[in-house]
Each structure stands twice: as structure tokens, then as C-alpha cells.
Design a protein that fits this description.
- By secondary structure, the protein is an all-alpha fold.
- The chain has one domain.
- Helix 1 runs antiparallel to helix 2 and helix 2 packs parallel to helix 5.
- The two termini are 22 Å apart.
- InterPro entries: DUF6168.
- Keywords: Membrane, Transmembrane, Transmembrane helix.
- Pfam families: DUF6168.
């Protein structure tokens, strides 16, 4: 259980670090600056990722049939918390340019896909176990 979680988390950290590095490199190569901290955006999504995959893992032990519903609900909660935490950035008095908007979207979708992959694999593993028992 936790071996799978640790391996997937380490792979996710590696991917996120690589994408963050590339993103920062690109922003600096075109001599642009962001009006917010991209590190804080990635940190928020990483913490949410850890909470979601750990919760999904623990829930799959007790209620394997409810994992998909929980994952969907957690995505909506994550979006709400993101908007609440970063409301000054998102709803700034001056509109965000394209680079700033895409720099918010990239980590969101990257971690969303990673969470979906983890949850989907967990649900498939649970279905395979129940098929072999029955």
C-alpha cells in the first residue's frame, strides 16, 4: 500500500520538479517575470496531491467502491481552496497576461492528471482483486 504511494509520489516529485525547472527557464529566457510566486502554486498543488492520494489510498482500504466519488469531490474542493488561497493573484486588479495564466494552468492540470492516474490504478487494482475473489 504505502510502497506504491511512495514510489508514485517520488516519480511525481521528479516530474513536477522537471516541469517547474523548464517553466522557470522559459520565463527567464524570454526576460519575463510573473506577478506571483510560481513556487507557491506548485507547493499548493503538491500538498493537495499528497492529501488526495493518501486519502484515496486509505479510503480504498475501507470503501473501495467509493474511491471514484471521493476523488471527484476532492477535485472540486481542491479547486475551491485554490481560488480561495490565490484569489488576490487570480482576481488581481490588472488582468493576467497569457504567460501568467498558462503558468497557473500547467501545474493544476499536471497534478490533476497525476491524481487521476493514481486513483484510476487504485480502482483497477481493487476491481481485479474483487474479480479474483468472486
Amino acid at each position: 500500500m504505502f510502497k506504491r504511494l511512495i514510489i508514485f509520489t517520488l516519480l511525481s516529485v521528479g516530474l513536477a520538479s522537471a516541469i517547474l525547472f523548464i517553466q522557470k527557464w522559459y520565463i527567464s529566457s524570454i526576460d519575463e517575470t510573473l506577478t506571483y510566486s510560481i513556487n507557491s502554486i506548485y507547493l499548493f498543488h503538491f500538498i493537495a496531491f499528497i492529501i488526495i492520494v493518501l486519502s484515496v489510498e486509505l479510503l480504498s482500504q475501507r470503501l473501495p467502491d467509493q474511491v471514484g466519488y471521493f476523488y471527484l469531490a476532492s477535485v472540486f474542493v481542491k479547486i475551491g481552496l485554490f481560488v480561495l488561497v490565490f484569489k488576490d493573484t487570480i482576481f488581481a486588479s490588472s488582468p493576467l497576461n497569457f504567460l501568467e495564466r498558462i503558468s497557473i494552468i500547467i501545474p493544476f492540470f499536471m497534478f490533476l492528471v497525476l491524481e487521476a492516474i493514481y486513483s484510476g490504478r487504485l480502482m483497477n487494482a481493487a476491481n481485479n482483486e474483487s474479480d479474483s475473489k468472486g
